[in-house]
Design brief:
This is Integrase. The protein has helices at about 10-20, 25-30, 35-55, 65-70, 80-95, 100-105, 125-160, 165-175, 180-190, 195-200, 205-215, 225, 270-280, 280-290, 320-325, 345-355, 360-365, 370-380, 385-405, 410-420, 430-440, 485-500, 505-520, 530-540, 550, and strands at about 235-240, 240-245, 255-265, 300-305, 310-315, 330, 335-340, 405-410, 420-425, 425-430, 450, 480. It is mainly alpha-helical.
């Protein structure tokens, strides 16, 4: 957006804003959406008008007093007023001799009135999300059947050798022509709704909104980006996946053209839904392209009940979303009708589900935004409070388990386990399973894993262990035998090398737990002869275990 700093209702204030606020705008407004920047602009207008009404036309920022700020502090305008105070604080920080002393004291606090605390929107409850998704899917299927059947019906009517006058009018209305008054009466006389013809060939506004809801509950894309998808948004289809390219209008100086890799198949996948929407809206897009409509490149086009032309781009406003949701006649878990769902909550719901699927790992959960934003806007919500409480309880149990002794088998106990089996946590391994375990079939770099698909420390989407190899040192599924001693000693050598080039505090934070686990709880279980033999193996370059590549790179 364009913000002309002098358009604040006061010549002197506009001049000073251009001088002192202008150079900071890129830094001050980085990452803010257009509505937020507009709120900052509007916050200066009441102050400019107040200064002009009191005859201070040219004084600018130097003549503003604390009383002027109090005059702008109106109850119910907290969100806008705090932008004014924030701007004055930024100016004062860069120019400490500019503002009056009483104004400096006044901007130490924001408002005399209580402002409503800004809270993240809550995701939909699992029940509401499920019934909304099911209803949207049913609407998509009904739309597909209606349009495909309607195309066959219209094609048969076009091929009919002799058509009545009403049938000719029916065809024109189906092709997007508004009926005249006399033609409307023909529909009324036959008790046929206009929608019976106008909705046969292309999407309608409620259809498009149901498509968007169905897609929004399957992808992490912001809802405003779904509204502005282009007809060439599908990129690089391969092996059941496709990238959806979209334009993000916020996010600061980062790239605005983004892509999300999604599943591509039937209409229960995001890629399939977009392909179906492309096909069902194709006649409208072709008609718009023929008449040179600049909106012909957008995905969401079709029949609009009011205005001309009737085939054009849809207005996907929040009000229209509410109307479409009301038309679905849904009820929540308490039996109350669902009449209003803020569209932005759909992405919150997907983020909530992905947060649970990734077990709270922000590195894997954060998508299209930074980890702090992921934590603040998508993790810190009331809908996850119970999950966080359960996670804390589980983490306490894991910490207790990690503090216990790891399962270390010196040679004598290893022979016993091969003969009679072994108990690891809650699982019992027979002699054959133990033999397979110690043979190397389930080796990691530092130990042997008895439960790669049942990791207690986090799993990937396919159920496999998601923990780095050093996590084996703290995992209840790990087993350590004399055969793994050379690898453990090699890792200890690497830890010592890292300690020499890092600060003690940094090394202690990152590696002390691994070092203590090996030195205090694993190595003392083995005899000195076993350790010396392993040390000889580790020092022999021909047979020494190789460090993982990322450790060799430092």
């Amino acid at each position: 957006m364009t913000w002309l700093l002098h358009e604040v209702g006061n010549e002197g204030l506009g001049r000073d804003l251009a001088l002192y606020l202008g150079p900071m705008m890129n830094e001050l407004f980085a990452g803010l959406a257009v509505p937020s920047v507009e709120q900052y602009r509007q916050s200066w207008i009441p102050l400019g008008k107040h200064l002009s009404s009191s005859g201070r036309l040219n004084g600018g920022l130097r003549v503003i007093t604390a009383a002027d700020i109090d005059a702008c502090d109106v109850r119910g305008q907290y969100s806008r007023f705090r932008c004014l105070v924030h701007g004055l604080r930024a100016i004062d920080e860069r120019n400490p001799d500019l503002l009056r002393p009483d104004l400096k004291a006044r901007i130490n606090f924001t408002s005399r009135h209580n402002g409503t605390a800004l809270r993240p929107r809550e995701p939909l409850t699992p029940f509401v999300a499920r019934v909304l998704k099911d209803a949207a899917d049913r609407s998509v299927v009904a739309t597909r059947e209606r349009i495909l059947t309607g195309r066959e019906q219209i094609e048969a009517l076009r091929n009919k050798p002799e058509r009545s006058r009403f049938e000719n009018v029916f065809l024109r209305v189906a092709d997007g022509t508004r009926p005249a008054r006399s033609e409307f009466d023909m529909f009324k006389y036959r008790k046929v709704a206009i929608a019976a013809a106008s909705d046969l060939l292309v999407l309608t506004l409620p259809d498009a909104i149901c498509f968007i809801i169905a897609i929004a509950l399957r992808v992490e894309m912001p809802i405003e980006c779904l509204r502005t998808l282009r007809r060439d948004c599908l990129k690089n289809p391969a092996r059941g996946y496709v990238s959806i390219e979209y334009t993000k209008g916020r996010g600061g100086p980062r790239a605005k053209i983004k892509r999300e890799r999604v599943r591509d198949g039937g209409i229960n996948t995001p890629g399939g839904l977009v392909r179906l929407a492309l096909e069902l809206s194709r006649p409208a897009a072709e008609r718009m392209a023929d008449r040179g409509d600049p909106n012909a490149d957008y995905l969401w086009v079709g029949f609009v009940a009011a205005g001309l032309p009737s085939w054009r781009r849809f207005s996907l406003s929040t009000h229209n979303f509410y109307a479409a949701i009301r038309s679905l006649w849904l009820v929540d878990e308490a039996g109350k009708p669902i009449t209003k769902i803020v569209p932005a909550r759909l992405r919150k719901t997907v983020k909530r589900d992905n947060y649970l699927r990734h077990t709270g790992h922000l590195r894997r959960f954060a998508s299209d935004h930074s980890k702090p934003v992921a934590a603040r806007h998508y993790a810190a919500v009331d809908g996850l409070r119970e999950e966080h409480a359960r996670s804390v309880a589980v983490a306490e149990g894991q910490l207790f388990d990690m503090a216990m002794m790891p399962l270390v088998l010196p040679p004598k106990e290893e022979v016993s386990a091969l003969a009679s089996g072994l108990s690891i946590g809650n699982q019992k391994l027979d002699a054959g399973a133990v033999a397979s375990l110690v043979s190397g079939d389930a080796d990691t770099f530092l130990g042997m894993c008895s439960g790669f698909w049942s990791s207690p420390l986090g799993r990937n989407d396919n159920g496999s262990c998601a923990t780095a190899f050093t996590g084996c040192l703290h995992c209840s599924n790990a087993v350590f035998t004399a055969r793994k001693l050379p690898a453990l000693l090699t890792y200890l050598t690497w830890l010592a090398e890292r300690r020499a080039v890092m600060t003690e505090a940094e090394w202690h934070e990152r590696y002390s737990a691994d070092h203590n686990r090996i030195m205090v709880q694993i190595l003392p279980v083995f005899d000195a002869g076993d350790i010396e033999q392993a040390r000889s193996t580790a020092e022999n370059a021909a047979v020494a275990p190789a460090l993982p590549p990322h450790l060799q790179r430092g």
